[in-house]
Every structure is written in C-alpha cells, then in structure tokens.
C-alpha cells in the first residue's frame, strides 16, 4: 500500500502557514517585522494612538475608499449606533447560551444595510452597540441606548457600565482602539479579503473575519494572558510557573508573532497608555515582572527563535486596568479591527479579482487507487 502523507501531521510542511507569501497589494498598513515598525497609511502607530481619536484614525485609514469623504466619521458612527440599537431586542430574545461574541455576530447578521449609510459605517458603528448590549444581557441588566453625540470609546464605556466613564478610561480605550485598527495581512484580515473578493457583502466578510480573530493564536489571546497573570499571582512565582508551562510545551499567551522578530510596537503604545492611568496599579507592576521573566525563559527555551511581547500582553493589562471584564477582550478587539477589515474588503474589491490560490496535492493518484468493487 502507498504511504499517504497526512497534511495535518506534516509539521514541517513549508506552505502550511503561507509564511512569507505576499497575497495582497495594499496602501493601508505595513508591518516591518525586523525593525518593529507599524505604519498606517504613512503614519507610524506611535504617531496615531493617543494622538488622534479612533474616529479620526478610521477617517485617515479610509481615505480614498469612498466611504467617509463627505461626512465626519464621528457623526456617521453616531448615526450608525442609533440605527443598530433597533436590533438589540433580537439580541435580548436570543438563547442564554450565546457568548457575548456570538450575540455580536447575531446582531451583525440581523443588521439591516442599505438604509443610507455606507456598509462600512453601518457595521463599524453597530459593533460597539452589540458588544455593550450583549454584555448587559449576560449580566442581567437592561441594554442602554447609544448617545450619538459622544465619541465611540466614551459611548461604549457608558453603554457597558451605565455611567459616564472617567476621562482617563475613555482616553485609554480610545488609544487601544486606534492601536488595533489595522495590521497588515493578519489571519482575520486575510479572511475578510478572501470573502470580499467573491463580491460577497461586507457583513459576510466581517462575520468571517470575526471567526478567524476568535482563536487563541490570534485575537483570543488576551483573556488567557490575564488568566496567566492571575495564576502566577506574585513575581516570586513567575519563573517557576513560566518554566513549568514551557516544559509542558505550552505557549505563553501574549508572546511571539508571525511577522515581528523584535518587540511588537503596539505593546509599547499600550504600555505608555497604562502609564497615563497612574503609577500605582499593583497588577501593572506584576505584569511587568512577569513579562521580564517570560522573555528570559523564552530565550532559554527557544534560543533559535526570537520571541518577544506582542500586542495582546498589554491589551490584557490595559483593558483590565480600566475595569473591562476579560470576556470582553476579544469582542473589543473585533470592534476596533472592524473598520480595518472593511477597508481591506473595499481595497480588495477595487481590484475586481477573486482570491483563489492553488494547493499542493499529496494524496494518491487514480492509478494508485484500488478499483471500486
Ligand atoms: N510561547 C512558547 N513558544 C512559542 C510561542 C509562545 N508564545 N510562540 C512561538 N513559540 C515557539 C513554538 O513553540 C515553535 O517552537 P519549536 O520550533 O521549538 O516548535 C516556534 O516558536 C515557532 O512557532 P510557530 O508556531 O511556527 O510560529 P508562528 O509564527 O506560526 O507563531 C503565533 C505565531 C501563533 C502568534 C505564536 O507566537 C503563538 O502561538 N503565540 C501565543 C499566542 C498569542 O499571543 N497570540 C496573539 C498573537 S498577536 C495577534 O494575533 C493579534
């Protein structure tokens, strides 16, 4: 009998992760993994996050895509939040078993489009409303209507908690949303571009991208980062805990990256945001100690592979510091990344080209197969 390789067991399969493959031409963002530089349409992430609002960063990214030239993104997102709130009763009547993320996906699936708002605005504006409503449904409290006059970060915190957020918290969340707005051809953005390339609608592309984002190797990491910090508990335990995890061949969440061979610049942008929240948070100090221990342990365990801190580590610490429940970390990531996904879909659709790569067949040939009896 012919030995047939099983692709699932081919860990050395050179094409399995499409590593190094260039699969799109884009003006949206560039990730320089050697030097740790992230550029969004000509501006570094340090030049945007903490300096311009989420809405202005989105307007910057969307230039030339025909979405928001004529109107302010802040105003249009406000309108979109109001429109999306009409879908919230459906979310309230959905089964209790749905996670916050699944309820957001349900809301998106049910969101009426073609009501005068460009799809990217209708969808980008809706997700904060669905996130907040899904959280309040899960915690047994009444969903709150959006206030279209507020910036996205402020209104999202208000809809989550029912209170006007401290200015520092709104600024920290705004910085986070800008930091994660777009990031080259990551797994979820690639998914969005593939779906968009079939001329499917924007909703389907964002739903698919949300699916890709949710896994722990991508946008599902920050909740487990916080679990790790809590499990370690004190700097004295960090080394033993981390060494044990690496000996068990576990991955340390919040470390390592496909593209960066140095520090993910977004980690420092978020860490700078943490410093602005005040110097006295003991969990931030603990996280810094854990980070140092993890980097040293990773260097010992994998000397052949540069592994550094990625965006998810300080995402977890920052969002926790402003009181966000860890169950909302991935939903928030999707909320901030959605305008980036939409931009990529529009850019891909401008090419008019279907994404349809080839695969390398390693199964048996018909001449090798037994005749059917
Ligand atoms: N902890 C321990 N070891 C790691 C880690 C980690 N976080 N990341 C990579 N490695 C090791 C692997 O075990 C492997 O070692 P080996 O060659 O001895 O088997 C080597 O580094 C290469 O790993 P790959 O999986 O081939 O590298 P890849 O580029 O595909 O991985 C990834 C990138 C998936 C992000 C990885 O670093 C990881 O799993 N990190 C932890 C999860 C995480 O933080 N995800 C968020 C990423 S950022 C984002 O998506 C927004």
TrEMBL record:
Pfam families: Citrate_synt. GO terms for biological process: carbohydrate metabolic process; tricarboxylic acid cycle. Pathway: Carbohydrate metabolism; tricarboxylic acid cycle; isocitrate from oxaloacetate: step 1/2. The keyword Cell membrane does not apply. The keyword Transferase applies. Keywords: Acyltransferase, Transferase. It catalyses: oxaloacetate + acetyl-CoA + H2O = citrate + CoA + H(+). PROSITE patterns: CITRATE_SYNTHASE (PS00480). The active site is at 257, 312. SUPFAM superfamilies: Citrate synthase. GO terms for molecular function: citrate synthase activity. One of its GO terms (cellular component) is cytosol. Belongs to the citrate synthase family. This is Citrate synthase. It comes from Roseibium album.
């Amino acid at each position: 009998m012919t030995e047939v390789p099983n692709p699932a067991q081919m860990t050395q399969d050179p094409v399995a992760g499409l590593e190094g493959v260039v699969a799109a031409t884009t003006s949206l963002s560039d990730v320089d993994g050697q030097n740790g530089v992230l550029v969004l349409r000509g501006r570094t992430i340090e030049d945007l996050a903490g300096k311009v609002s989420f809405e202005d960063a989105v307007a910057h990214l969307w230039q030339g895509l025909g979405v928001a030239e004529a109107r302010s993104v802040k105003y249009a997102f406000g309108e979109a939040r109001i429109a999306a709130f009409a879908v919230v009763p459906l979310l309230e009547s959905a089964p209790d078993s749905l996670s916050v993320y699944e309820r957001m996906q349900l809301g998106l699936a049910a969101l009426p489009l073609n009501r005068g708002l460009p799809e990217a605005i209708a969808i980008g504006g809706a997700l904060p409303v669905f996130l907040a409503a899904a959280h309040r449904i899960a915690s047994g409290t009444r969903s709150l209507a959006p206030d279209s006059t507020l910036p996205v970060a402020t209104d999202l915190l208000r809809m989550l908690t029912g209170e006007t957020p401290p200015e520092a918290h709104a600024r920290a969340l705004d910085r986070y949303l800008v930091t994660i707005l777009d990031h080259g051809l990551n797994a979820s953005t690639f998914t969005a571009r593939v779906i968009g390339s079939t001329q499917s609608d924007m909703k389907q592309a964002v739903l698919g991208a949300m699916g890709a984002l949710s896994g722990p190797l991508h946008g599902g990491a920050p909740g487990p980062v916080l679990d790790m910090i809590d499990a370690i508990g004190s700097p004295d335990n960090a080394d033993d805990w981390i060494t044990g995890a690496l000996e068990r061949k576990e991955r340390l969440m919040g470390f390592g990256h496909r593209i960066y061979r140095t520090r993910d610049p977004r980690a420092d942008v978020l860490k700078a945001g943490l410093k602005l929240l005040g110097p006295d948070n003991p969990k931030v100090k603990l996280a810094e100690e854990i980070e140092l221990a993890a980097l040293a342990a990773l260097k010992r365990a994998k000397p052949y592979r540069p592994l550094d801190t990625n965006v998810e580590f300080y995402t977890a610490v920052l969002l926790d510091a402003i009181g966000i429940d860890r169950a909302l970390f991935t939903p928030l990531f999707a909320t901030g990344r959605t305008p980036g996904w939409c931009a990529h879909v529009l850019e891909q659709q401008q090419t008019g080209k279907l994404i349809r790569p080839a695969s390398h067949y390693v199964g048996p040939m018909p001449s090798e197969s037994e005749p059917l009896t």
